[in-house]
Amino acid sequence: MTEVKTLPRHSPLANVKGVANDARPKIVHEEVYQKLRRAIISGQLEPGRTLSVRGLAAEFGVSTMPAREAIRQLVALGALELTETRRVSVAQMNEDKLSEISEARLALEPELAARVLTQLKRQSAAREKLAIKLSKIDATLDRAIERGDSAAYARYNSEFHFKLYEAAKSPVYLGLVESLWLQIGPFMRVVIGRLGTSSLVDQHKEAVSALRADDVTKLTKAIRNDILEGMTNIARTDV
Question: Would you indicate the residue range of the signal peptide (predicted)?
């Protein structure tokens, strides 16, 4: 039987706060699920990374039951894979799956970005406040690129997108987009290897500029181009 490895001590989950053992089982499970889910969306777990129920339970300071249930849910969502030997790992990618995710992102994310401007119509102060937050995230992301820090890049890239998308106040769209990022998030780490030599326009800065100008056409174009660039770079690797 294939040995199931636990998460090492330098795991990106090692700094996540434990879950109170005296909490109700449903609450404990939900906290474990949400923290593991965020780690996958933000690219903190690389593709193919092996996980185990016992390892996750130890990381979060809980019993194996909530860890097992969190894994079960994420397997159902396609974020994790379970083999016939019961080995659990972060899901891998293939060409057809990548193409389908790309098409879905292009259909949903520019529309979600457009809804941000609808939500903040005639609210210049709110748009500026959001633009400042996004600019700070993007500056941190730029420093991660300079350091060649793939984990930090993936984290702040996802933070930029979801800070923008959450402002749309569109929970249905947001849930659909999150389900896509559960499958693509770990692969954002490979994009950084191609950014150092890129001379393309910084689409995040274009998006911030469009937000400030209340320009929906420019904003949706920036998000669309950002998706195309990222997914193309992922496709150029061995997925």
Answer: none
Model confidence at 118: pLDDT above 50:
yes
Among 201, 207, 193, 86, CA closest to 137: 207
Contacts of 172 (CB under 8 A, 6+ apart): none
114-137 mean pLDDT:
97
37-66 pLDDT tens trace: 999 999 999 898 999 899 988 888 889 999
pLDDT, average across residues 126-136: 98
Among 130, 89, 124, residue whose Cα is nearest residue 214: 124
Q: Domains of the chain by range and CATH?
A: 25-90 (1.10.10.10), 95-235 (1.20.120.530)
DSSP characters for 118-182?
HHTTT-HHHHHHHHHHHHHHHHHHHHHHHHT-HHHHHHHHHHHHHHHHHTT--HHHHHHHHHHHH
Query: 202 or 209: whose pLDDT is higher?
Result: 209
Residue pair 40/12 in contact (Cβ under 8 Å)? The answer is no
With CA atoms as reference, report the closest residue to 238 among 207, 202, 193.
193
Contact 211, 138 (CB under 8 A): no
